[in-house]
Write a structure and sequence with these properties.
316 residues; alpha/beta; Rossmann fold; Alpha-Beta Plaits; 2 domains; six-stranded mixed sheet; 12 helices; elongated; binds adenosine-5'-triphosphate; AAA+_ATPase; ATP hydrolysis activity; antibiotic resistance
Length: 316
């Protein structure tokens, strides 16, 4: 994460920040009935996004990202709690052109060319003068004559991005916009998005990929089981997600002593007769376990993102 993503570019900030949060989600819950069981997709979620921030919703499959986004866009009503966008009901905000979305699938007509698609939607918004500009910003100028059905997944997503830019929204929401794209398409897509966000637009996007969140967002909101399990700058989240776990066979009654020595120690989980512990300085913890406790079979392991989700979920 470089500083240039944290602040809008000095040239032509077209979406100045204001004191009203771009997004305010308060005690949001949503459940679904599925095969006779109730799935709590979103479980008391609270989140505030200030205008001008670029926020990544990061979480594994089923974390509740799409359901949250649907409520934020006014596509689904919450069971309880409230969602507001620039202080308004999401549907009113969408109607006023303040919010636009790039969703994972659907929404394009195969037989239209790229240029026809943009000009048709531009006419609906009454913004025909902006066609060339949004096509350039989404990096699809050279694709104007191509049929939508002939565009790659990445090109179709850039087209959807162009359509989302037409109402010149203050908030743009993207639900896994690069799912299924190859590396080069992802790079081109994010380059277009980043250039646009640097003008000061608020962006909220869902992703499975820590790298994507890390290189594009100012802030990562990590979700699991319908809740926010971590929320911080990309550097903070990366540090937590990549911290090492020390595991050992250790009697439970040794834990209070360890916690006195290491107040920041986190007990990740008990599994298979082992205790998994996390501390920023894993070497010191391992050394202490070996030299000052009766711990046996001490191991230090890097933690991948999935493990980080498990650990963070266990903490909450
Ligand atoms: N319409 C629905 N009917 C039943 N269950 C649903 C429905 N929509 C979502 N769910 C369930 O709610 C939970 C959260 O799903 P959601 O799609 O919001 O997660 P997600 O984080 O976006 O996942 P993914 O990354 O796979 O898209 C999942 O368990 C999912 O199966």
């Amino acid at each position: 994460m470089t500083q240039r993503h944290l602040t809008p570019a000095p040239s032509a900030p077209t979406h100045p920040t204001s004191s009203t949060p771009a997004v305010a989600l308060t005690d949001l819950t949503k459940s679904f009935r599925s095969k006779g069981a109730t799935v709590r997709a979103v479980d008391g979620l609270n989140l505030q996004v200030e205008a001008g921030q670029v926020v990544a919703f990061l979480g594994p499959n089923g974390a509740g990202k799409t359901t949250t986004i649907d409520m934020l866009l006014g596509l689904t009503e919450p069971d309880s709690g409230t969602a507001s966008v620039f202080g308004r009901n999401p549907r009113d905000a969408a109607r006023a052109g303040r919010i636009a979305a790039v969703m994972q699938t659907g929404g394009l007509l195969d037989d239209f060319t790229v240029a026809e698609t943009v000009s048709t939607i531009a006419a609906l918004h009454g913004r025909t003068a902006d066609i060339d500009e949004v096509m350039a910003r989404a990096d699809i100028t050279d694709l104007g004559d191509r049929k939508v059905s002939r565009c790659s997944g990445g090109e179709q997503q850039r087209l959807k991005f162009a359509l989302a830019l037409l109402p010149d929204p203050d908030l743009i929401v993207l639900d896994e916009p690069t799912a299924g794209m190859d590396v080069e398409s992802r790079r081109t897509f994010w380059a277009a998005m980043r250039a646009d966000a640097e003008r000061g637009r608020t962006v909220l996007f869902a992703t499975h990929y820590l790298e994507e969140a890390d290189s594009f967002a100012d802030r990562i909101v990590m979700m699991a089981h319908g809740r926010v399990v971590a929320d911080g700058s990309t550097a903070e989240i990366r540090a937590r997600a990549s911290s090492r776990v020390v595991s050992a066979v250790l009697d439970d009654d040794a834990l209070p002593g360890l916690q006195r020595v290491f107040p920041d120690l986190r007990i990740v989980e008990h599994r298979g007769g082992r205790i998994y512990l996390s501390l920023a300085d894993s070497d010191t913890l391992a050394r202490h376990l070996l030299t000052s406790t009766r711990a046996r079979d001490v191991e230090i392991a890097g933690r991948n993102l999935e493990d980080a989700f498990v650990a963070l979920t266990a903490d909450n």
